[in-house]
Amino acid sequence: MGYKLAGFDVIGCNEIDPKMMEAYRVNHDPKYSFLEPIQTFKNREDLPPELYELDILDGSPPCSSFSMAGNREKDWGKEKVFREGQSMQVLDTLFFDFIDLAKKLQPKVVIAENVKGLLLGNAKSYVIQICKAFDEAGYEVQHFLLDASKMGVPQRRERVFFIALRKDLCKGFMVQKDMFTHKPDLKMVFKEKKIPFGNLQNALQREPLSPPDMRHFDNANQSGRDRSGTNTFGFFYKCIKSLVCCTITTGGRYSIEDEPMRLNDSEFCNIGTFPEDYNFEDNRVQYLIGMSVPPVMTAQIATEIHNQWLSKIQIN
Length: 316
Fold this sequence. Notes:
Elements: H1 2-5, E1 12-15, H2 18-28, E2 32-35, H3 38-41, E3 56-59, E4 80-82, E5 87-89, H4 94-105, E6 109-115, H5 124-137, E7 139-147, E8 158-166, E9 174-176, E10 182-184, H6 211-219, E11 225-226, E12 236-239, E13 253-256, E14 259-262, H7 265-272, H8 285-291, H9 295-315
Parallel strand pairs: 1-2, 3-6, 12-13
Antiparallel strand pairs: 4-5, 6-8, 7-8, 9-10, 11-12, 13-14
Helix pairs in contact: 4-5, 7-8
């Protein structure tokens, strides 16, 4: 949806989760769709020729292994059943399967999104491995930590984006990034005016908080977060009207600062920059939005890549 906002033609997708794929198909009617593990998809020998002529290949390898809200190191290298597709997977290797796919398809640009936790602690070693894999696949890569609230999204959502340009297209773009490295020149600086939650809330019907959640509502601090509310379903948050909303997660619990009521689906759509008429099928609205990069965030990135790289490559 973000790429469409930026003027791109999105022709297909690969997804392991049937419910997510159904929502994608209903809303976007992709020309090509492959409901299967990426390990299977990347080894296909029957892919349409159009997939070997892409401007951009975009992927978001499932990232709960690196999330600060998860078990992090305890889960690294373990095969587990994750919510993404309800399938046995080792999530921390999926990034490299995605790079294998890029090596095969050789799009002009590759974009991979992940959580901020990938840049923290022991996970930094994965960044080194990711950069090496991109290099071996034929790409110059750099990563950016971006904040959606500075990009026209009414949500404090920080995500890491690895953005890679195919090496044979780098001529004319290379600049010295520091004393030792040269990378294709790419500026990802956004200074959009922040949008507080008070601009988004509406008067549509909401559900009252449950008695257990009322305790967390009373304990939430001035930032709107109750750290005592951690459990398998995430933190409890109050949305402060004068502040940008916090990150929408799949399992967090959200209310309004002065009203012990849950946010309604319309408000989740506004915070996530989804259209209110989006067909979520059988997916819970908060869950799908919590799993997604906000479309406006994607549109901002895609626009800059077109303006700074793709438009000039096409001219040359």
